[in-house]
Each structure stands twice: as C-alpha cells, then as structure tokens.
Specification:
It holds the Pfam family adh_short_C2. This protein is an alpha/beta fold. It has helices at residues 20-31, 48-60, 78-92, 131-159, 186-203, 230-239, 249-259, 261-264, and strands at 11-14, 35-40, 68-72, 97-100, 165-170, 208-215, 271-274. Strands 3-2-1-4-5-6-7 form a 7-stranded parallel beta sheet, sandwiched between helices. Helix 1 (20-31) runs parallel beside helix 2 (48-60), helix 1 packs across helix 7 (249-259) and helix 4 runs parallel beside helix 5. The chain is globular. Mean pLDDT is 91; it is low at 116-125.
Amino acid sequence: MAFPQLLVGKVAAITGGLTGIGRAIALDYIRHGAKVSISHLGGEKETPQLEALRQEVSSIDPEASTRFTTVAGDISQPETGKTFVAKTVEAFGRLDIFVSNAGVCQFAEFLEYIPHFDPIQSILTNPSLEPSLLNHTISTNLTGAFYATQAAARQMALVQSPPGGSIIGVSSISALVGGGQQTHYTPTKAGVLSLMQSTACALGKYGIRCNALLPGTIRTQLNEEDMKDPVKREYMEGRIPLGRLGQPRDLAGPAVFLACEELSGYVTGAQLLVDGGLFVNLQ
C-alpha cells in the first residue's frame, strides 16, 4: 500500500544533512515529494558519503535525483547559512521548510582543564573541557543555528511571495536535563529550543511556524564510540520504556509532521520529544 506524499512541491533545506538525523530527514522529505538541499562539511569534491547518499536518493524514484542538491560549508561560520539558503533558492526557486540540524557533541569533564596539550592526555576517552572545545560547540550548535535560521527566515518572510514556511530546530532531550560530561553541550541545545520559541513569536505574523525536535539517545556518528560500550548501552536501553536506542529514521516522521502545513498548521513554538519515553522515566 502506497502512502500519500505530504510535501509535493515543497522546497526544504537541511543543515548537516549528510549523516545521522539530517540524512534520515532528507531522505524522508524526498520520499514525500519535496525538493531537498542539504549542507555538509568539507569541499565540493565528491566523497564516498556523498555518493552513497546520492545513490539512495536515486533509488527512491527515477526523478528523485533532480529534486536533490548539496552545498558544502561550515555552519559555525556566520556567512555559511546565508550562502546555503541562497544556493537552495538558486536551485529550486524558493524555500518552504528549513531544518537546523548540524551539530557536534563531544563528552568532556567539567573540572579537567589542561592549558597546554599533553600527548599523554590524548588517549583519554573524555578530553578536558578546553576553551577551543567550548567555543566550537557553541559556534556550531547555537551561533550557527541562529545565523542559518535567520537567513532562512529572511527568505521566507521578506523575499518570496507569499511569505510563510516551517522552521525546525533540532534540539535534544539534553535541553531539559543535565549531563555531567555535557556542561558545554546542554546549554547549546537549550538555546536551540529557546531560539525556536522566540522565533515562533517573531515570525508568526509572516505565517512562519517554528518548532523544536528533541531527540533522545539516538545512534548516530556522534555517539557511536560511546555506545560501543555494551555495559553503557544496556544501561541506556534499560532506562527507555520502549526498550531500545533511537535510530535516525525515528526523527524523520516527526520532521515530516512539523513540515506539513496540513498536519501541523496550528503548531508553532512547540517542542516534540522523540525519545522512546526516556524523559518520563528518568529517575
């Protein structure tokens, strides 16, 4: 049985769309008929990851590859968001859906500070929380999200006609709870949640809806090494009522819901937890 396509004719841009959650959302948007642009780190040169993604896009339907494009750039740089939006509009004519997904996460101990690099410390699983790690986390997860969201909103509100659209910020369950080795990370995800709440207030008059997705523990490249520890993985699975860690595809359906005007046209300023029940089971 074929499911209806919910995003036919819509144009979506997704930061960090090459891997993990962003990749899963991009593929589902393609399946639902959208034209999709993703941003990714690195240069314009084709890589095995890019090639694999293009092949998966092409496998969806014969015309899918014509509805897909990629833009290289480092989202931590303020100009990258503007360039990404401009190239998306150049390729597809407008912008209806923007997903601010790009992010980094590296565990680090709050009190361990090493002013000068010590080669011996490089073998530690959890590095020290040096200024460079803090600054990179903030500039990627929060500052980059701010400027990219602002660029998307300007296009949706002031350039195209009629105005309107859906902006989705990928936050985290970490926006709601603490983490001893995430003191530099959790504030950025709380910031993304707050950004979506405030932009919902600022952009509602333009018909732009802004919502946050809050993934729980999702198996992506960001935590792959951490989840290789069977003891830690079993512990995490035991805390989740649904009994398993999340997969990137678990975020794709909720992202389609928030993007689709027919399904979520009166939803803005909201936070949608996608965590298998972890938050309500925290003890």
